[in-house]
Amino acid sequence: MNIEIKSPEEAEMKKFLEERHDAEAKRILRFLNMPDLSRAEGSPLKEIVERASKVNSLEGFDVIQIPEIIPTNILFDLFNMPPGHPARSKSDTYYIGDDYVLRTHDTVFWYYYLNYPEIKERIANKEILGVICYGKVYRKDEIDRSHMNVFHQFGGLHIGPDDKKTITPEDLKNTLSEVARSIFGDVNFRFYDHNFPYTDPSFEMEAEINGQWMEMLGSGMARKSVLANFGLTGYHGWAFGFGLERLAMASMSLPDIRLLWSEDPRIKKQLRLGNKYIPVSKYPPITRDISFVADKNFIPNNYFDLLRDLGLPAGKAGGDLIEEVGLIDKYENAEKFGEAKTSYAYRIVFRSNERTLTSGEVDEIMSKIYSETAKQFKAELR
User: Fold this and answer.
1) 52 close to 182: Cβ distance less than 8 angstroms
2) Engineered SS bond to 61: which of 54, 94, 130, 374, CB 3.0-4.6 Å?
3) Cβ neighbours of residue 282 under 8 Å, at least 6 residues apart?
4) According to the model, what pLDDT value does residue 354 have?
C-alpha cells in the first residue's frame, strides 16, 4: 500500500514562511523546493531506493511519504529526544517558529504510519506490519565535499504482535545483508553494538568498499517505550535507516557530494551505481580568506548557511560554488577585541564541477560575503 500523508500544519507553515522576508525564511523555502533526488529519474539515489525496496525481506512492505515540516513534539519528544537534547539545538536544526522544524530524520515516519486509520485497523486485527520511507531531510552542517545540509534518507520498520510472531535481531541483520548486497554486490560487512534513542539493542553496519570499512547504516530493535508513545503496545520488531548520498558516493567513488545535483550531461551520464566516476575535468580552485570579530554566541553552522546562500549560482537547485570552508584561526583577546568577543578566520575554497571560475565572479561573491557577514552577524571585518 502506498500512503501519502497530507499535513494542514505544513501548508500553514509554508504560508507563514512565504509571508516573511528574512534570509532564513527564504533559505528554508529554497530547501523545500529543491528536488527530491530519491524520486528523481536518472538519479543514483533513486536507483538505491529501487534496489533496496526489491530485496526479498522487504517484499510487500507499505511505502509512506510524510511531511517535511514536523512539530517538535512529534519529531523529538516521541522519539526520546526531550528538551535539552543535542539534536534539538538551533545550531543543528532548522526551526520555523518555536514549535515546528524541518525534519532532521526520517524515522519520524513511525508516528505517521502507526496513526494512519487503515494501519490502526490492521493493528486491531493483530496483523504483522512492514513499511519503508525515503526522502529529503535537513540539518545544518559544515561545508566540505562530503556534507550538504539537504540530503536523503531511507528507513524501514517491521513489527508484529508479541503473541503471533517472534522478530529477532538476526532477522534484522539478514534483511540488512540483503540491502547491502543489492547496492554493492557481494561485499563483506559486519555489525557492532551502538546506541540510538529509539532502538534497543542497536547496531551499526559497516561494509568493506574499495578496501576500506565504511559505516553504512544504523539499526536495532524498536524500543517498546517509543512504540508506546504512539499508543502501540504488545508489538515488537526491528527498524533501520541510512543516508543515500554516502552509499551512492562510495559505489561510484564520487569525490564531491555536489556532483549528485549536477545538470552537466557529462557528469549525469556517469552517475550510475557501480560505475567509477571519471572527472570530466579538474577545474582549478580559487581561494579567499575572511577574518572578522564576532560575539561569542556566533554559531558557525549558521554562518555556513549564509555562505551556501551566497555561493549558489542563479537558477541552481543544489551544488553551490563553494567547495569547502575551513577554520584557520580562532582566538580571544579581551584587551584588543573587547569582552565576549572572538576573532575568526576562515579559508573559503571556490570551485565549480562544471566550468572554470573567474577571479572576477569570485570577487563579486566575496564582496557580498563581506557585506552580509558584517550585517547579519554584526561582525567587525579585519
Assistant:
1) yes
2) 130
3) none
4) 84
Contacts of residue 102, defined as CB under 8 A and 6 or more positions apart, other chains included, come to: 28, 31, 32, 68, 69, 70, 93, 94, 96, 137, 138
| Amino acid in the structure at residue 350 | F
Q: What is the pLDDT of residue 316?
A: 55
Q: Domains, the chain, ranges and CATH?
A: 2-252 (3.30.930.10), 286-381 (3.30.70.380)
Q: Which three cell numbers stand for residue 286?
A: 580559487
CA 371 to CA 377: how far, in whole Å? 10
Determine phi and psi for 49, rounding to 5 degrees.
-55, -45
pTM of the model: 0.91
Task: Please tell me what DSSP assigns to residue 283.
Answer: P
Quote the crossing angle between the two packed helices 8-19 and 23-33, to the nearest 10°: 130
Q: Which of 158, 155, 121, 132 is nearest to 235 (CA)?
A: 158
Cell 552517475, located at residue: 271
pLDDT reported for residue 319: 53
In tens, the pLDDT along 261-288 reads 988 888 999 999 999 999 887 889 999 9
Per the omega criterion (within 30 degrees of 0), is the bond before 201 cis?
Answer: yes
* Spatial separation of the C-alpha atoms in residues 374 and 353, rounded to whole Å: 29
What is the rounded distance in angstroms from the CA atom of residue 192 to the CA atom of residue 211?
A: 19
Which pLDDT score is estimated for 186? 87
Compute the distance between CA of residue 160 and CA of residue 129 in angstroms, rounded to an integer. 6
Please tell me the number of Cα atoms within 13 Å of 325 on its side-chain side.
24
Give the residue ranges of the chain where pLDDT is below 70.
314-319
